[in-house]
Amino acid sequence: MREYSGEIYNDVKKCVDEVIEYVGKDIVMAMTLALGKPVLFMNELYRRVKADPTMSLKIYTAFPLEKPTGSSDLEKRIYNYIVPKLFDGVPDLEYMLDYRAGKMPKNVEHFEFFSKAGTYMHDDIAQQNHIDSNYSHIVRDALDRGVNVFGHLCSSLEIDGRTMYSMGCNADIVVGAMAAGKRLRAEGAKFVVVAECNNNLPFMYGDAVVEATEYDMILTGPEFQYNLFGAPKGSVSVTDHMIGLNTSVLIKDGGTLQVGIGSLGDAVVNGLIMRNDHNDDYLEVLKKTGISERYGKIISDWGGTDTFKQGLYGSSEMFVDAFMQLYKNRILKRRVYDSVPLMKLINEGYLKDDHIPDDIIERLITMKAIHSRLDEEDFNFLVKFGILRKGLKYENQTIIDGDMRYSTDMNDPAALREIKTLLGKNLQEGTIILGAFYVGPRDFYKALNDMPEEERKLFGMSGVDKVNQLYGDEELRTLQRKEGRFINTGMVATLLGSIASDYLEDGRVVSGVGGQYNFVSMGHALPDARVIIMLKSTKGAGKTLKSNIVFSYGSCTIPKHLRDIVVTEYGIADIRGLPDKMVIMEMLNIADSRFQPQLLAQAKKSGKLPKDYEIPARYRNNYPEKLQELLKPFQDRGYFAALPFGSDLCMHDTVLVGAMQALSSQSKNYPSKVYGGLLKELFKSIPGEARSFLQALQLDQPRNIKERLYRKMVVLALRNFGVFNMDTEAIVSSLAGEQEMAF
Fold first, then answer.
1. Could you tell me the CA-to-CA distances from 130 to 101, 420, 502, 532 in Å, in that order?
2. pTM here?
């Protein structure tokens, strides 16, 4: 194997042969998180180690994307019907299949620093092997464990007659891993960089584009053009929508947005789209829900309710479908440029994307951004960003335009006047988002692939060190990320404002810290930024109902001294810099009223609240029924839909999945009601409307008692979901279950 040769392989077995020959039998493999894994290379490497007990393999990665399988026979029937429609042609990670089946050999271990929430809650091995590391530190921490093979998924494109490669969906750790690999090589270590080239992966720009020689080996060919894993779109509940609505008023036009994947992120974006496209109705819902009256000051100081004239810029570790929806609706449109002087002029309002002032050269000279005698570097800068139009050349302190030559001595008034005739009309090289990785539904990938190259260049990708932090280029990043709103989710919040987002009190990890601490730290460092933690006020239902706002909690992701803004479905708690008693008062105001008396009593008992303090009456009606009542008139008009951005499934299948998920939730929270309903169902006939759903699950002609019982369970789920009382389109438009349809 020739180091950093960018050698092309079309045989994965030969590629793995050479990797093993080079690094030896003890392999420590690191891969990118989520979509960017070199699946076929990883599978072949795993097979080799699995077949040879003298070898060992340690895998360091995060968020392996897995097709759902189900545990019960009925769940398996549902997934056997749904999964082929969503994941046709998507290969599995074989080591994960074996791991889930309890068949992974002892000479293979896997370690993750971030997982899909709840995936390993009852898995002792995964809990023991979890790496508690900030996203921006994971390259360092993995390399400290002896990584000698690094692999990821890439795509290729012919640019100016040369084949270039894009890190595509995962510039996040690839940028850092490549740089670290070169350092290790220089120190005498063996380190292999392997790319698996799949041109179904959108070719992304920014820092993601590299030459072949950045890799040792590149796997390419027809077998590597498999379908990508698309994360199905999830449903958005009334609770989600209220959290999104409360958050939407905190976003300032002309600002910067960080938001994640999932129903809460979709809810925020849905609220922003309503604010921009249907502002009259948006203002009405803010008034009817009391948001505009209760939170007028924070909206005035830090947010807004107007339309997005300047638009937003995205600075987000996750470039998700929610951002694409903002782009489609002309909200994600504020462009930034990698130039401190240009960003200063833009933020002042002097310079605009589509307007280059006549005196721009003088302004840049005054700022010492360029010299009064333009040198070649100055010329390249001016052309790159469109201040001087394309097609010009620089030669011997002269700018050439066809047969015309222009002096570069801007001290000469005549030369300055002549140069102004060469000014461009629009700024170039702007981006509307900087992301570290992306993953989303299939139509998200299609939208990116269908874009002209110039349009796709608006979506920049870079390493997580650059996206999640200010370090290294603080002045530029501060100018670009003005009015930043860094939105993340939490699981539990204490009355004093600390947040638990990744661990339970007993030490079990739910997901991982990811980049949350990075964004919180950056949000506090930027003078005009705010950190917004979204939190559902409760979890469970019936006897399992619990408050997610508690007096104290035995796990902490974000400490109370970094508290800022917490949002629940019941409102906004602006708690940055407040004394403890006021923090508690604000947090009580956004708690579910079924738990407010207990929380109030605990705070008083601890001496953190005055004994005579009472929660204001206006905040003592925090009940889910009230939210349903407030949003119902707007849902009737088509707002706050359960699937605001559509579904990957047809309407029939969406209803089936939604009904079965709702029944699963009811079984956990109200088991007696489900058992009673099932008992009644045994004595009822099968409605004709259920036939197509039963056929889909091969239960229309049950062969035994178990299948007869399953058939009744499906009918009960459909009945509870309202399928027999209204048409499926109406059901989909009014979906409001707590269960997400994402896998």
1. 19, 60, 12, 27
2. 0.93
